[in-house]
Amino acid sequence: MVVLLAVGAIAEAQQPAKITRIGYLDAVSLSVNAARVEAFRQGLRKLGYVEGKNIFIEWRSADGKLDRLPALAAELVRLKVDVIVTAGPPPTRAAKEATSTIPIDSKKQEKNE
């Protein structure tokens, strides 16, 4: 009995940590906001988060076609991301309309970017 408990404790201790899934929703192409995307990644790294290791980011862009935002936001909800990060008011609005349970973090665009 003691052996089984010890094996169970070791197996439980070796369970990989949950990988956080972030949904990132932008109205424009991610290449247009390359500096913002890189700053986001750097900020995550400074906090100890590494893509593919302890976080996974679902990148979605409407490529300037704002009518695509609701479907992209709904897709992120279906993927069961842990948080949705948005870049600007239109993606934020679409995310808020798609979910009331997933936290939404809106990154306002700076005028001098």
General description of the model:
The protein is α/β, with parallel strands linked by helices and 113 residues long. It has a 4-stranded parallel sheet with strand order 2-1-3-4, with helices on one face. Strand 1, helix 2 (34-46) and strand 2 (55-61) form a beta-alpha-beta unit. 40% of the residues lie in helices and 20% in strands.
Topology:
Layout: H1 2-13, E1 20-26, H2 34-46, E2 55-61, H3 69-78, E3 83-87, H4 89-98, E4 104-107
pLDDT average, as an integer?
Answer: 84
H/E element string?
Answer: HEHEHEHE
Number of helices: 4
Approximate helicity band: 25-40%
Q: Outline the low-pLDDT stretches.
A: 1-11
Radius of gyration: 18 Å
Largest sheet: 4 strands, parallel
Feature tags:
disordered N terminus, globular, 40% helix, 113 residues, four-stranded parallel sheet, alpha/beta, 4 helices
Produce a short descriptive summary.
With 113 residues, the chain is an alpha/beta fold.
